[in-house]
Each structure stands twice: as structure tokens, then as C-alpha cells.
Amino acid sequence: APSVVQRGTTVKYVITENMRRLLVRKLGYKAAEVQNMKPDVAAVLVHKMLKRPKTGMPEQFYVDDAAPAAPKTKMWGAKRIQAGDFLRKVLVPLVSVLLIAVSSLAVTPTSNND
Fold it and tell me: pTM for the full model?
């Protein structure tokens, strides 16, 4: 791989095809992430065999101005949840419980046989 020598250190400045392949196939990074990854970061990830974090690639790994926009999230307590998760995990069960409660309060007509 091409490199620049500065004061006895070697700094990689390109991501080779072998590095790309390893980052995507073995370490779980997305091709678009590798395409926009800093070459020196890629070299460390490959050397140390560091897998992609479950939360995604940190913004600091991207070349300048190449990090994707953060997904839209809502704050709910101290935990950040996706809007879809809020609907599925909170709103739907809440509505279900309310419907059951309201239906159990409904008065059924009784016949008066006087």
C-alpha cells in the first residue's frame, strides 16, 4: 500500500482492496462506510480486527463532512428511542389497555321484569 514516511513512522493514506474486503466481509462495516472512512482509521481497524459497533460507525471514523446525518430520534426519559419503537413498544400497548378498561366499564342493558 502506498504510504508516507514521516520521522520514522509509516502512515497509510489509501484503503487497499484487500482492506476493503476485510472491513466489509469479516468486520461487518458497510461498503458506503468504508468508502468514506479515514484511511488511517481503516488501517487500525484491520490491524486490530475491530468489528463494526452495533450502534454504527462513529462519526470520527469518517473523512471530513462524510458522516451520515443522525437518525431522527425522540427523547423519552434517559433513553433515546426511534419513533417506530415508541409506537410499537409504548403507544399500541397503552391503547390496548385503555380499550380493555373502557369495554369492561360498559354497562350491559338488563331487562326489568316487573
Answer: 0.52
